[in-house]
Write a structure and sequence with these properties.
Layout lengths: L11 H63 L2 H24 L15
Helix pairs in contact: 1-2
Length: 115
């Protein structure tokens, strides 16, 4: 236990209450730290998920590009039509997902510079 040489005019009871307040504040800070730690872990998981989604989109686009190039080289109109339809379907899915998972903007866009 810590003993004070000078209490600055405070009674032992007053010092005890002040120490209790300090202890409660420290407990609150520790709880907040644990909560923020969990929020950070949740954020890391969300970023990882977004990265995976982004990589999946890139892989999909690369695959479609290769298939389209091959179809164009071979003159396979049926493959070109199928790829066109697939692109349209994927475009709708991607646009729907982006709109559903993008929060509304709460800030105004920056002003357009005058030339």
């Amino acid at each position: 236990m810590l003993w004070f040489c000078s209490s600055g005019g405070r009674t032992s009871t007053q010092l005890h209450h002040q120490l209790d307040r300090i202890e409660r504040k420290l407990d609150l800070l520790l709880r907040m730290e644990r909560s923020l730690g969990q929020e950070l872990e949740d954020l890391k998981a969300a970023v990882a998920a977004e990265t995976t989604v982004g990589e999946s989109v890139v892989a999909l686009l690369n695959d479609i590009s290769v298939r389209l190039t091959n179809a164009l080289k071979s003159g396979d109109t049926a493959a070109i039509t199928a790829l066109t339809n697939e692109l349209k379907a994927n475009q709708v899915k991607l646009a729907t997902a982006v709109l559903a998972n993008t929060p509304a903007s709460t800030t105004e866009p920056p002003p357009t510079p005058n030339p």
